[in-house]
## 1
Amino acid sequence: MRDEFSFIKSITPTNRFQQQLTIGIGDDAAVYKTSAATEQVVCVDAMVEGIHFRRDTLSPFQIGRKALAINISDLAAMGANPMYYLVTIAVSESWSEHELQDIYAGMNELAELYKMDLIGGDTVSSKDQLVLSVTAIGNVREGHALKRSSAKPGDVLFVTGPIGKSAAGLELLQQKEKDNSFTDVERSCIRAHQEPEPQISSGTYLASLGKRIALNDVSDGLSSEAMELAEASNVQIVVDQEKLHPILPDLQDVDHSQKLHWLLNGGEDFQLIGTTSEETFAQLQKSGSITLFDIGFVRAGNASVIMKSANVETLLAKGGYNHFS
């Protein structure tokens, strides 16, 4: 099968029938109007045992929590407030009822934090692996949903926090025993992998400004998410390697190239990556209402991502996690 992103593009219908639909396939979530004042934002993600998670690196509670966090992160990327979620779970005989209860308890913990209601779903049997599919629904003020397609030449490229910590945490778990002793920094990376925090407050704040801001969440690695912004906006995005140090995993015994690999290709950090004008970025920095890291800029050119180091520029492949690669 072709790669995941080309496959999705190939099955996207060319016609749109519902007038209320304002953003369809091609962004982090769909958006449709329900009233004159707000639009609904809908997204769905699935996790498959052995592909998206392993039972030796995540507890059932953490699996459930992460499944909902992934969807909440998509809402954050649109600037939406979480409201509801639905859960479909396919269960194999290797999972006990207690473990399944823990999965839902993990989702419930995060749902309580964001005041989300579980409003439905389905439970079926599976021959081998557990499959967990979550649909999340939120809302955003009409016309304020943040899209990937809003980047323009001259914009600042920014992220909301560290990138690569989740991939570092997974590698630490794979290298050592699950309950082995870790340093505080290592535990921070492991926590980023097992219990990621969606950036809802940042996303909703950016949406509330009514400014031109392109936004995406970092679920599949920075290079992949930057490329999605570049493709949606038909611009060239330049990542300045010299500006990446503050957002790299702070592991002293790991060389810089490995940290850079985690940042570009690791995924599952669920920070936000975006672009906005220099003027708006300066205003955001001055306000102190949100933490943003300047990591590059946008310029005219074919949709692509460039890594700039000193005076050397390197074209980045679309890395990160791809389900069909």
## 2
Amino acid sequence: MDFTTIFRPEVRQFIKENIHKDLTKLLLSNSPFEDISMQQIAQQIKGCRIAEKKFPFLLKEGIVFPPQLNLEQSSSQATAIFKASLFGGESLLDLTCGYGIDAYYLSENFKATTLVEQNRELLDIVKHNWSILNKTHVLYLHQEISFFLQNNTERFSLIYLDPARRDMHNHKKFLLKDLSPDIINIGDELLKFSDKILIKLSPLMDISMLISQVKAISYIYIIAVKNEVKELLIVIDKAYDDELSLRVCNLQSNDPDLEIPYSALHASVASYGEVSSYLYIPNNALLKSGAFNFISEYFQLEKLHPNTQLYTSNHKIENFPGRVLKIVSTDAKAIKKGERFNIIAKNYPLTPEQIKKKYKIKDGGNQYLIFTQSRQRKLILKSI
């Protein structure tokens, strides 16, 4: 694929001049260049905008961006760096290269990397970009995964996959059997070529379903960035003979990681009580784990209600993976019109928006109002 046309000085200058312009209007106008369409120019502008927030290491002269869907499906720089912190060895195989963000960082810890991608144009873009970034010892293969697996004779230290979660009509898929490749069917074949496999999955996947359908899982990582759950990672390790664990991680936050033995999810017993001096709100990665009773038992906290994932204690825990608020009980009469609060509603009949409207309060400020309930009564709590 020839990228020289979009790197001509006049084209690069046009992109820079229009980097913050309305893309819809831009696409309705004619390209000032005979050999480059406005769609191609807009693709590079959109890529720069996404890269600025998602993978800023690519904001270098000469980098080419693929269509928007490929950018949206790519991992962020933050989650790719996290993956790279987990593995290293002689050789890496990425069977679903895509735009190559994960492979780029994972490859830092391997002596040789093999990238397999069925989209020729996308692989050409990755090859071009990695040359700009001075990546070496990389084999680029434009192949179907099935063809590669049938013909491969090498073994790898790690195999990485990010199965496609959309069908040919761009509809999202949430069952393992609907992903491409189908990791259930090819799992045994993958283990012929590596003892370790890392698979990235949607955060909407059901963890219990994963465990029941995928063999030899050693770890499941629940990865959030700034409290937004972004992905699940499952590690398949042929040599692992210990208990399966969940690892909860909230990147770009001060929350500590937490490791949870899977058996503890079912064996733990929660304690219940009325609200005390401190309120504990688990981060979203921890909530995704489903370890609601474990939180109570492990941190020695009392749960307010079986259906409310809020916890309380008379003492403050410094290393809790979530928000800790010192609180007092209040009532509706004490809420003054026009006051500013951050509103939290958990297991409560009104939404935050409905609460703001009912009590005529504004969003924001440094204090929290929490509307919830214990097993005994409805509660309004205020942070102090």
## 3
Amino acid sequence: MPQGRDLIQNALLMERRGDIERARTFYEDMLRENPGNRQAYQRLKEILKRTGELDSAAQLVEVWIALNPNDLQAYIELGEIVFLKKDKIRAAKIWHDFEITYGTNKSIYRMLVHTFSRLGLTEEMERLVKRGRNKLGQKDMLALDLANYYYSRQTYDRAIDEYLIYIIEHPQQEKLVTDRVLLMSDDPENHLLIEKKLVSSLENNHVIINKLLAGYYFKTSRYNEALNTHRSMGLDNNSDFNRWLLLAGNLRKESQYDLSIKAYQELLDLELEIHPKIIGEALLGLGKTYEDQLLPNIRNNLLVVFYPDNLFFKNEFLQISSRSRESLEKTFELYKRVLQELPASSFSPKAHFRLGEIQFKITRDFDGARASYLSALASRPDNNLRQNILLRIGDTFIAEGNLIAARNHFKVQHRNNNNSISPFTMKEIHLTFLTGTIDTAKTVLDSVIVNSLPNDKYFNDLMELQDIIAQHYTFGSETDKEALLQYSITERFLQQYKLVEAAEMLAFIRENYPDVSILPTVMLRECLLRLLLEDVSISLNIAKLLEKTIFAPQGITIQGEINEQFFGDIDEAMKFYNNLLESYPMSMLAEPVRMRMRQLKNTEES
């Protein structure tokens, strides 16, 4: 006959096999031998509840309580079993007597609340918590438990009440409560309720409620009201200043440039003694806001991108409108102000670098940009910024067409970098491709890929370039190779911002090499470049031709984008987007196109 632990194991095995009666017999025998065997008691109780023998289950628990009067959970379980027997009056008495006896212990209220919530006894739960709060003098007792209970049942008015009680006493849990309230705001039907609850709580002058209300306004795109709510919290100390910087930065990220500028400016205009670190962050943030205003508008937000995020085909240059010149001038002034007011601070290299970025990407003053980058380098930047500066110095040489100087610069940096695939290695590979030395590019590519892993940062970029070389050079005809060499010249032009020359070279390849393997790639590159140059009719014609190539999804989508963004014909654009979804549902463009269609429909409805 099995003994002790073996007996328990055998009984559990019987349960798993579905032989409940034998398992029950084992547990009863164990309890007769040792009435204090908790594991046998728990398993037998669960079997009796599962088989609906609630009278027997209640008797079992009563015997257990007699033997173990300090087992508080058993009292609650007894009440639950009696309640399940439909004897609600007796169950209520059991719980009431339990509360009277042990009501000075906060944990018993939590145990009862969880039981009541499981049984759907909402009113009893509310009365219990109210009694507990009064008795223990803790007005926030079980507020989070109640709030989560109401939240799960979408009783949002009561959920908000309890969350507010909780957050006032536990401000360190601000993120938890904010996340829950903002999730409720996903449904517009809850907006009025949330605002009413939060505004009515402001009279108690709790800053945490103001922050919650400001977050709600921000989430629902009521940015002016968010800013005003933050104003009501004051701007008096470092905590306020950091909160204000976060708000201004978030407004910038939401493209609320005017409000972001206003917020930064208000901080800088304060007649208070502000730490230089705060001033530096405000000046840099303000400069970045003006800088972001320079970025191209929605036309730069195209669905179709040529080899997205691939380092080898990335174009860093930006075009700005004449209306953006004022922002450009203000940006220059702000970064120069940082350098004048905080010359020896950690902001100095950042300001020099931002100036260099504007000179490189926008004004294309490559000498001036290089001077700014070198000044940033001399200002002791951190390691990440230092690497970006060194990379950009090499880019200025490429942009000037001085590929020899660029190669020498990247070689020196590569020797100083211990990483197997450093960004400097990538730049060296890029240069071999731009100069048309395809054999060398292939050799270096192969050697780097052999020593890399799929999770390496640049792995996909390397594989895509290797695929291009393999298709159109290694396994291509002599004409294919010649066309690829011509194409590498196009990429060199693009790195020098010679957009017209690049477009003409692509057109030359398209017209003179009609049968080469790289032709679809050339067509896609030219199609997108013509859009950038606003040669819309040429781009549209090429997009139509792309429908007969492997880039048919791109061709269809581009036609939709041209109708949407250049012609303003949303109905016609929708036809092309629907065509894409119907003809190429598995395309990588399908989901972005669905999102664009949803945005357009929402815009029309509003």
## 4
Amino acid sequence: MTEPDALAAGPVPVAPRREGAAHDEILERIDDLTRVVARQAATIERLADDAKAKAQRERHGADLPLVTELFALLGDAVACASTAESAREREAFDAVAGRIERLLVGRGGIVVAPGAGEAFDSLSMEAADVVRTDSPDEDRTVDSLVQPGLSIPGRSIRPARVVVRQHRKPAESSPSTDTAQRPRS
């Protein structure tokens, strides 16, 4: 047949084949997308489970005995650094203390070492001493650190020992001090 004869014969059944092929292609793509979504859902579930397990390990302090020993060793290294006789020894002990602290933090420990002026937190600090301050803004703030503390997420193992400032109004002269200062006749 020539082209004019083909046109005269009527529509060619090519279009239905294309519709069928297009339909099959759409079904195949839907199947592919279903597999991709299922794979992504499984990945998200796995990541969520890993995050939950990590959080649970951090909460329970899986390495608590090791963290406690590392904290004691850190205290020894800091003490050695502060009493070193030469700058070279001091630098060496400071380097060792830094490495121990990194290990401690890597195992889930948190060194609690509040600086002067920070608010006193009774959950992670212990007042070793109290000093008077005339400024109400400095009331219940840390004056100085006596000894650092140790905590793990959600739990204080050893509170930091600090000197706490407490605001007190200047004492007015009381009758007992007035009589003590009178000269005897």
